[in-house]
Structure formats: C-alpha cells, structure tokens
Amino acid sequence: MEERRMGSVSQASRRRKARGINGLIILMVILLGLSFFVPTNYYITRPGSAISLGPIIEVEDGKKDETGSFMLTTVRMGEASLAWYLYAQVSQDAELMPKQLVVSQGENNEDFIRREQAVMDNSQKLAEAVAFRLAGYDVHVENQGVWVMGTLEGMPAKEALKIGDVIIEVNGVKTPEAKDLLQQLAGKKAGDEVEITYTRDGQVAKTMLPLKPLPNSQSVGVGIRTDSKQLIEIPKKVTIAAQGIGGPSAGLMMALEIYDQLNTEVDLTKGFQIAGTGTIALDGSVGKIGGINHKIVAADAAGAEIFFAPDDPNDPNSNYKDAVKTAERIGTSMQIVPVKTIDDAVAFLNELKPKQT
Questions:
Q1: Catalytic residue (choose from 288, 295, 318, 321)
Q2: CA gap 8, 146 in Å, rounded
Q3: Which among 46, 86, 155, 282 is placed 20 to 30 Å from 23, CA to CA?
Q4: Is 231:260 a contact under the CB 8 Å cutoff?
Q5: Burial status of residue 155 (CB atoms within 10 A of its CB: 0-12, 13-18, 19 or more)
Q6: Is there a catalytic annotation at residue 295?
Q7: Beta carbons of 207 and 160 less than 8 angstroms apart
Q8: Looking at its record, which EC class is this enzyme (predicted)?
C-alpha cells in the first residue's frame, strides 16, 4: 500500500509539473501574440525584394530582348510593435528608426504613404527624361510649381494643404520653383497673410494663410516640406506598373531599363542579373538612398550578380562603402559597382563581356 501511495503521489506531482509547464508555454504564447499589438515610437526596416523591371516597364516601340534583367530593390518598412522592436535587438538585418525621422511632425501613416507614392511618381518621370536624353531624344522639361511633400503640425498649412498639392502662385505671382516661393515670403513677418493658389487633383483652388515663425528658424512661413513639380514630355509613351512601391530610390534602375528598351543595337544586361539603387536627377547624377544594407541582402537572395551602388568618395558613410561592408558580411559573390552618374553604369555595362552559358 505504501509503495502504491508513493507512486500515486509521484504521478500527481508529474501531472502538476506538466500542467505548470503547459500553462507557462500558453502564457508565453499569449504574451508573444500581444507584443505584436504593443506600439513603440519606432519604425523597423528590413530587407525587401529585388523586382525585375522588364515585366513592369513598357516603352512604346521599345525592344525587350534582354537575356538578363535589371532589378530594382526595396526595403520593407513599417511601424515597429514591441515584438519587432525586440527582434531588431538581435538581428543584423533589421534596423530601428525613431518615428520622427520617418514621418513629419503631425503626419500619419496615410500621409507618409501618399508622400512616398508622390516621390515615386516624380522619380519615374525623371528616369524617363534621363533615359530618353541618353538615347538621343529631345525631352521637354517645364517647372510647374512647388510640390507639397508634407505639412508641419501647428502651422497654417496643416489644415489647408495636402501632400501632393502644387503651389503655383503666391499673392498672384507665379512660383514655378521653390526659390520663387521663398522670394515671395522674404521680408514678411509673423501675422502677415498670403494668398496661396494651388492645384489638387487637376483643380485650381486658393486659400489665405497667415505666416508663423518656422520651427528652429528665424524665418516665417506656412509650414510645408517642398519639392519641385515638373512637366516632363517625352516623344514616346512609357508605362510603369510599380504600384505599391514608393520613394525615389529606383530612379537609376528604371532609367537603365527604359534606356535598354530604347537602345535597339545592344542588350545592356549581357545575360546578367543586375540589381541596384539610387535616385536619379535630370543631369543623370545618382543620389544616395537609405537602407542599402537591406537592399544588398534582398538582391543577393534574388540571385543578382551585379549591384550598382551610389558612390561619393568624400562621404565616409557612402552607399558604396556600406554596400561593400554588407556584401562581405553575408559572403555574397555579387559584384558591387560604384556609380556617380548613369553614364558610369552604362560605361560599365558596355565594357561587360556577355555571360557565358
């Protein structure tokens, strides 16, 4: 009897212990699940994808005989929950950014997405202009006004203007560029009112706005972040189906794909999978972007063999140097190529020997 009682006690003890462990596991699962809904004051960035541009860019009468491909690269970005915050503490392929560095003061996530899409649209137009000029076509460029890329919390423009609006006049004087807007506000003081004429979704509207001191500045203004809105006319139709991709960093790679479709004499890819990144300006210069370490990881995962990275030899944290560091860390065989202009990229491709298959 004593042995049976001891056996029963031992079994009961094991059952209690098992229930305790199971309860702890369930609690941990619940807490982990809840952590995805606990907000933080950060955004998280991670490797995105490398997307072949041939299928999403169509140039009128252009050729599509690439044996390889040009690829744009993306970064995944989103608001960081507590779970993602903790993940970023232990992963080399995740970074945290304070929310105020990503979105403007008073800007919500919808505003951020709208701004990123507007910048992407502008980047597409610049890529078209650069590619057509490179191919020898005439391109007409006309400044249309001052593009509203954001509004500051507590400033007059916050309730009156939206991201994507284009300011075309101040007090009846045309403002084709940001410098013209600043010129119209120069010499004015807080409390003065100005009449802003702007376009929104193709419609012209006007609003009277008082001027207020700008944050961390001796100047007064209405409180907007600006960019240039330009009318770019090219001789052939270009269709770019890049829905869901925002920001300016695909400019270089889009320009290369458009130029390759216009260039009927040679396949610039030479059979290689070519990824890259960088903004593009009207003069063909390639600008620095954010998150290049994530783009290197994404390109390598997609099988890219060559990667174009913006380069500035005078910048100790240039994209090219960061790209090389990441490539070494992940052990990729992908060739990292520094470029300052689109001409640098084209010159490299012209010298590239066709891939042996």
A1: 295
A2: 82
A3: 86
A4: no
A5: buried
A6: yes
A7: yes
A8: hydrolase
Domain ranges (residues) in the chain = 2-35, 48-77+118-137+235-351, 140-231
Question: Nearest Cα to 56, choosing from 258, 269, 306, 345?
Answer: 258
- The CATH architecture that domain 140-231 belongs to is Roll (2.30)
- Residue 228, helix vs strand vs coil: strand
In tens, the pLDDT along 50-79 reads 999 999 999 999 988 778 999 999 998 888
Q: Identify the residue whose tokens are 């063999």.
A: 305
Q: Residue 334 in contact with residue 327, Cβ under 8 Å?
A: yes
CB 283 within 8 A of CB 314: no
How does pLDDT run across 133-152, given as a tens digit for each residue?
Answer: 999 999 999 999 999 988 88
Question: Is residue 91 among the annotated active site residues?
Answer: no
Total-model pTM: 0.79
Say how many Å lie between the first and final Cα of the chain, rounded.
81
Q: Which residues contact 221 (CB under 8 A, 6 or more apart)?
A: 155, 185, 211, 212, 214
Widest CA span in the chain: 104
Residue of 69, 104, 249, 285 marked catalytic: 249
